[in-house]
Recover the amino acids of this structure.
């Protein structure tokens, strides 16, 4: 109960818990109008998670085993989780765009190959799954329950946010020898996609290209939907945005 292994029974069980929670949340929210303002529950979940996030990283800083190379909130997943939670209470377009494209496109792999060694007897296990459940769940919930429909503008916002993150993370990694964002010279301790991208710094360009491509894949269904809804020759009416 104090250790976790990738592709174990426990791993599959947690993925099922995350998936079932997302489905249940969508089913409950769909009883309201898609464009209804944030509910009290959505606001409470947002506040609770942001409070948990802040408290966790403050607490980690004062533990005897604090390791700055891995325990600062500098991974993209860390910030995508906060942005996703915040978008529940404040569904601003920029927040939703980053949660959708960066969260789903760039952080989903963390659920498939978690960089996690602690088991359910230890707090980091639960914080990992709650955080990554937010990263995956909120944008899916936003699409299927709250009517979010991303477009080119949203993709552009997400690309700018991702490039900004890479620039900051790379500067920190080069200055400290850490590997936040996996854009530094090091590699994760657990198997991941980074293992197949070759040596650094060449793999950095591949990471950026793959990130842009992964986010673009998430845009394709909406481009196809828009084309089907408005065939060539017809003019689409402007979309009301928040």
């Amino acid at each position: 109960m104090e250790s976790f292994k990738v592709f174990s029974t426990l791993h599959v069980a947690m993925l099922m818990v995350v998936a079932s929670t997302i489905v249940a949340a969508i089913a409950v929210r769909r009883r309201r109008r898609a464009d209804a303002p944030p509910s009290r529950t959505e606001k409470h979940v947002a506040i609770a998670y942001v409070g948990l996030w802040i408290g966790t990283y403050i607490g980690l800083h004062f533990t005897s085993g604090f390791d700055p190379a891995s325990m600062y909130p500098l991974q993209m997943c860390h910030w995508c989780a906060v942005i996703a939670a915040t978008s529940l209470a404040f569904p601003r377009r920029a927040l939703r765009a980053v949660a959708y494209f960066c969260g789903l496109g760039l952080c989903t792999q963390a659920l498939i190959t978690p960089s996690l060694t602690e088991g359910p007897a230890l707090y980091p296990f639960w914080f990992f799954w709650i955080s990554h459940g937010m990263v995956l769940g909120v944008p899916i919930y936003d699409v299927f329950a709250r009517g979010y429909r991303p477009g080119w503008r949203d993709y552009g916002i997400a690309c700018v946010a991702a490039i900004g993150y890479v620039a900051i993370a790379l500067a920190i990694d080069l200055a400290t020898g850490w590997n936040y964002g996996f854009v530094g010279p090091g590699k994760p301790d657990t198997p991941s996609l980074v293992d197949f991208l070759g040596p650094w710094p060449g793999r950095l360009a591949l990471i950026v290209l793959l990130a842009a491509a992964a986010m673009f894949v998430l845009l394709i269904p909406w481009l196809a939907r828009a084309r089907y809804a408005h065939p060539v020759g017809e003019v689409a009416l402007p979309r009301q945005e928040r």
